[in-house]
TrEMBL record:
<dbReference type="InterPro" id="IPR037455">
    <property type="entry name" value="LucA/IucC-like"/>
</dbReference>
<dbReference type="GO" id="GO:0019290">
    <property type="term" value="P:siderophore biosynthetic process"/>
</dbReference>
<feature type="domain" description="Aerobactin siderophore biosynthesis IucA/IucC-like C-terminal">
    <location>
        <begin position="412"/>
        <end position="572"/>
    </location>
</feature>
<dbReference type="Pfam" id="PF04183">
    <property type="entry name" value="IucA_IucC"/>
</dbReference>
<feature type="domain" description="Aerobactin siderophore biosynthesis IucA/IucC N-terminal">
    <location>
        <begin position="140"/>
        <end position="378"/>
    </location>
</feature>
<comment type="similarity">
    <text>Belongs to the IucA/IucC family.</text>
</comment>
<dbReference type="Pfam" id="PF06276">
    <property type="entry name" value="FhuF"/>
</dbReference>
<dbReference type="GO" id="GO:0016881">
    <property type="term" value="F:acid-amino acid ligase activity"/>
</dbReference>
<protein>
    <submittedName>
        <fullName>IucA/IucC family siderophore biosynthesis protein</fullName>
    </submittedName>
</protein>
<dbReference type="InterPro" id="IPR007310">
    <property type="entry name" value="Aerobactin_biosyn_IucA/IucC_N"/>
</dbReference>
<dbReference type="InterPro" id="IPR022770">
    <property type="entry name" value="IucA/IucC-like_C"/>
</dbReference>
<comment type="pathway">
    <text>Siderophore biosynthesis.</text>
</comment>
Length: 619
């Protein structure tokens, strides 16, 4: 039987502690022997109070994703540790950070951490009956997008949301399988600014999508009926929460008095929030809408900035130019385009609140089968009894088909994943100087019939970093791109690339194999090393970068806890810069039992050769 409160509290304190340990480097580990065998125990001194937190981990990760169990205990001096609640534990940790960081917002951090925990408990309660659906290897794109109940495993407030009415959270949250109608405005063409890389413009796509969704004979209000047939008016959808706010905006009210803007209200088909919350889709539509939403989700307000509209089309044009090269060199790697935008008003600097980006949907209808959000591979099961995480179920099915062990299937699966993700992105950086913000939530994977990764999709028009030294190559593809906002000094571009691709993505995936008991993390760290070493051996810009990742003692990473502690909205700061910190680089650290791992790889080599031969004979 699932206990949502207990599961949510354990997940919340685990995420908070893991962030704290990684970002501060503090904490002392020791092994305690008991009736259940040896257990790893963390003791975390709190200098601000002369106390110490004591937490037992039933999984200790070599790369930092430990699994802690409840209760957390508080120790005074050499006394016996006493159990405390998670609110007390998080409050003590927040105060400890606050005592060391002047100008921090400890109350805000505590409030959001507890809100996140409460929302997670609600989500778990609502989805506890959906376990087979949540962890099925046959998930569709939409079901996968709505399966991230736990969220970012290295974030102190992964489910924090500000700006949604509490009583309507279930309508707007992907975790609760939310769905809703969009709210529409009809705007006189003199107010409309739009552009598109496709033949159809943004407002043409919007109107066509809306008309196709209306039921035959569906009654429209007189204002809607009049505006929908008047070619001088363009229709723009907004999120319901955004629509309510816009109606109180001074510019909007002025436009409405002048007759330049007509509020239509909720109309048309139901749309479903994806994992980002503000991007919505309809499973059978060829398009998704990235809506502007004045709500704070995790660290940032999710409003579309005007420069992001232009950047989206720039990225789409670039992606179009890259397609021939990708087909020839990386046929399993794809870039999802944000190819059109629309907004109201003509200010070059201010947003009106109507900013909308239209994204292509390559997963419409049957194309969305077995299409999984990469972050879903990292999610644990709601209950440890009677259910298994998605990644475990995928590998068990693959092992059954292959007639091999789950560990052998896992190793082959990870190698296939590297081939369609890390290698293409490194090759792209080598040739064009494009570093992608490819974190787990920006990445979508289509599994083949055998359950192995077959196609990788990158989606996020905001996540492009162009290395300044390579801009000349991009100018040949998209003239003017070198003067845009996405050009960064090589050092900064590579720092971001290293965090998103290596720390967030590859280490995040490796940790999941270890947490779920599929493979020792150190085995996959060696596989990642092998892949980077093979890339380092090939001349090109990526070879230097691969060697750097293999040899540097530390890696830079986004410190989500410190970013939240200072209440930094990274989308509002210069260069969209969050707080970054350094962690030990597990790729260059000495790997214990290396000889044992080498022997294990020799044993599985025979099976790998047999499998390759078998695949060739079927080709």
């Amino acid at each position: 039987m699932v206990n949502p409160k207990q599961v949510a509290e354990r997940a919340a304190v685990t995420s908070f502690l893991n962030c704290y340990l990684r970002e501060t480097g503090e904490g002392q580990w020791h092994v305690r022997k008991g009736s259940e065998g040896e257990m790893n125990v963390l003791r975390l001194p709190l200098s601000a109070t002369q106390l110490a937190l004591v937490a037992t981990a039933h999984y200790k990760s070599p790369t930092g994703r430990h699994l802690f169990q409840l209760p957390i205990c508080l120790q005074s001096g050499s006394g016996e540790p006493a159990p405390i609640g998670i609110a007390t534990a998080v409050s003590l940790l927040a105060d400890e950070l606050g005592s060391k960081h002047e100008g921090s917002e400890t109350k805000e951090l505590l409030l959001r951490a507890l809100q996140s925990c409460n929302l997670l408990e609600a989500f778990l309660s609502m989805r506890s009956g959906d376990i087979p659906e949540l962890y099925s290897p046959s998930l569709t794109f939409l079901k996968s997008e709505q399966s991230l109940l736990f969220g970012h495993v290295f974030h102190p407030t992964p489910k924090s949301r500000q700006g949604f009415p509490e009583w309507r959270q279930h309508l707007y949250s992907p975790e609760t399988k939310g769905s809703f109608q969009l709210h529409y405005f009809a705007a006189h063409h003199s107010l409309v600014e739009e552009d598109s890389v496709w033949r159809a413009g943004a407002t043409e796509i919007i109107k066509r999508e809306l008309l196709e969704s209306l039921a035959p004979g569906e009654a429209l209000s007189s204002a809607a009926a009049e505006a929908i047939h008047d070619p001088s008016y363009k229709w723009i959808p907004v999120h319901p929460v955004q629509g309510e706010e816009l109606l109180h905006d001074g510019h909007v009210q002025s436009w409405m008095r002048q007759g330049k803007l007509i509020y239509i209200g909720a109309i048309g088909r139901m749309y479903y929030p994806t994992s980002s919350i503000r991007t919505v889709c309809e499973p059978d539509s060829d398009y998704m809408y990235k809506l502007s939403l004045r709500a704070k989700i995790t660290n940032s307000m999710r409003v579309n900035k005007r420069h992001e509209l232009f950047g989206a089309l720039e990225a789409a044009r670039l992606a179009g130019k890259l397609e021939p090269w990708l087909r020839d060199h990386c046929p399993g790697f794809h870039i999802v385009k944000d190819g059109a935008y629309v907004t109201l008003g003509h200010s070059d600097t201010e947003e009106s609140g109507f900013e909308l980006i239209i994204r292509e949907n390559p997963f419409a209808g049957p194309q969305g089968e077995k299409v999984l959000l990469a972050a879903a591979f990292t999610q644990e099961a709601i209950s440890s009894s009677g259910s298994q995480p998605l990644l475990v179920n995928i590998l068990r099915e693959a092992a059954g088909r292959e007639g091999c062990s789950v560990a052998q299937a896992g190793l082959a699966w990870f190698r296939a994943y590297l081939a369609i993700s890390l290698r293409p992105m490194m090759m792209m950086y080598a040739k064009y100087g494009i570093a992608l913000e490819a974190h787990l939530q920006n990445s979508v994977v289509k599994l083949g019939a055998n359950g192995y990764p077959e196609h990788f999709y990158y989606r996020d028009s905001q996540g492009y970093y162009y290395a300044r030294s390579r801009v000349g190559y991009l100018e040949e593809l998209v003239p003017g791109i070198g003067s845009g906002p996405n050009v960064y000094d090589d050092e900064l571009a590579e720092e971001r690339f290293g965090y998103y691709l290596i720390v967030n993505h590859m280490l995040g995936l490796i940790q999941s194999f270890g947490v779920f008991g599929l493979l020792d993390e150190r085995v996959l760290l060696m596989e990642l090393r092998d892949e980077l070493e093979s890339l380092a051996a090939v001349p090109g810009a990526h070879s230097r970068l691969a060697r750097d990742w293999l040899t540097r003692r530390t890696l830079r990473f986004k410190a989500n806890l410190l970013t939240r502690l200072y209440d930094v909205d990274e989308l509002e700061t210069e260069l969209e810069q969050a707080v970054y910190a350094e962690m030990d680089n597990p790729l260059c650290a000495a790997l214990p039992d290396r000889e044992a791992i080498r022997k294990a790889r020799l044993v599985t080599a025979i099976w790998r050769r047999e499998r390759t031969a078998q695949q060739s004979s079927h080709a």
